[in-house]
Structures are given as C-alpha cells and as structure tokens.
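hi! just following up on the protien thing from before. the input was this:
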Amino acid sequence: MARIKIGDVFEISTPKGKSYLQYVHKHETIGELIRILDGLYIDGCERLDELVENKELYFIHFPLGAAYNRRIVIKMGNYPLPTNFKLPRKFRDDHFVRGEFICWHIVDYDSWQRESVKELSEEQKKFSPWGTWNDTLLIEKLVDDWTLDEWSYY
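and the predicted 3d structure came back as:
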C-alpha cells in the first residue's frame, strides 16, 4: 500500500453512513492528527473538494496508517488543506478521579504542559480532545453525532 501523505482524505464507514477525515499532521510521539469533516453520507460525498474546504468538527489523533493498512479507512484522494488551516496549539482533556469530574486539562501541543481549569472559557470550549482514538471509538462518536459543544460536565 502507498504511504499516507498530508492532505489525504479517507472514508470510514459507520452504521449511519460514511464519514470523511483528512490527515493534517504527524506528531513524533502520538502519531497522526486528523480533521473530522462534517456530515454522514449514505451514498458517499460527491464533492470532497468542497467538504475539505469547510470547517472541521474537531481534530483527534488516530492511528491512520494502521487503519489504512487494515482497510478500516479507504483513501479517497489528496486535497490541499484549507486556505485558512492552522494546526491547533491547544487541546483539552477531562480529568476524573474515582468517577468524579475534577477539572479540565488544557494541553499545549508543543510543550505538553497542562493547565488545570474548573470551567472552560468560550475559547477553550472549541479545543479538540487530547489523546488518541481507535476506530471503534471514532465510529461510536460519529454515530452519536458527538460534538465539542456537547462535551461538558456543567
């Protein structure tokens, strides 16, 4: 199989339709960062070039190379990253102890330094999840129409 490249767009099948993601960055430690593109499509998306230009739902690290090699995702082509694309600098993670929500961790992508906050600012609510999701979790989130807006404990 050919190697994956920045800008490659992949299709992943879910019980509710096909979803699309774009490979945007390779982090040396935690791997491939992808953009989750908007929408689920019963018959597939006919205009991937337009879909790629739209704002993503969120970013997540995902073992894309392994998923591609195992045919969990199908490569649909390579598209330029959107003209206004910027690699996210901050991510967020929820911190629980014994099942109780304690705080949010705001993670700096360059330094991995964490800042703890009890309540998220409007800007922080737009930060994508920190960590790596496997295909099972990604599909579950897509089927549930999970968004950053819903990810709150208040």
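DSSP finds three helices and nine strands in the chain.
Residues 12 and 72 are 7 Å apart (CA to CA).
cheers
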